[in-house]
Amino acid sequence: MTVSPLKVREEMLRRIHAHGVETYPHECCGALLGRDGDDTREVIDLVRLANRRDDSPRNRFEVTPDDVRLAEKTAGEKKLELIGWYHSHPDAPARPSEYDRDHAWPWYSYIIVSVQKGEPKDTTSWRLHDDRAGYDPEPVEIIVHTPSI
Amino acid sequence: MAVKVIIPTPLRVYAGKQESVEVQAKTVAEALAALTGTFGDLKKHLFSDDGRLRSFVNVYVNDEDIRYLQKDQTQVREGDTISIVPSIAGGSRI
Known about the structure:
heterodimer, A: alpha/beta, eight-stranded mixed β-sheet, 3 helices, 9 strands, B: alpha+beta, Ubiquitin-like (UB roll), 2 helices, globular
């Protein structure tokens, strides 16, 4: 299946990378707020969230249902939708793991940033198949925002 | 009892694009069975192959987490609202 690109404002990508660097060597996580249309989906804002996995934060993250509700509420207040999630893979590729797949739902966009030795490298996004068997890569299109004069 | 089940946004496509569905049930288990009986494609996203609620799927009756009530045997009353809220989890290790 071909997935339309996920448009991400450059500033949001910078913020995701900064979050991944800040929490390295632990995983960071957060919510993607934006707009979902028939053919386009755009990340417009983020909600940084705490990784609640104290036992294994280097290779696991968890967002509690209360934090999910907070992200939904924040999206509503900003007249946006909660369209997905981001997290980092410290010193690991920006590809979803089996564990990621077991804990995912379709429709959401899942951005993964690989942080290698404290530096952000690859950034990818993924959408789970309807049958939960795997993911489709979702191309990330970076939107450079030029402020109007 | 008629109870309302709020469908989370990612799963609405499997529930006729509805934000909520009304079902007849006396317990949470009956409500979810009625829901997935009508909308079969929802089942695999809520339940694992062994029939148990997926570990990251949380269910609330009027904002009370059923884990702190009687789990899926929690009784529901006319007009109650059931919410399904995921925990988001993942990580780099397989």
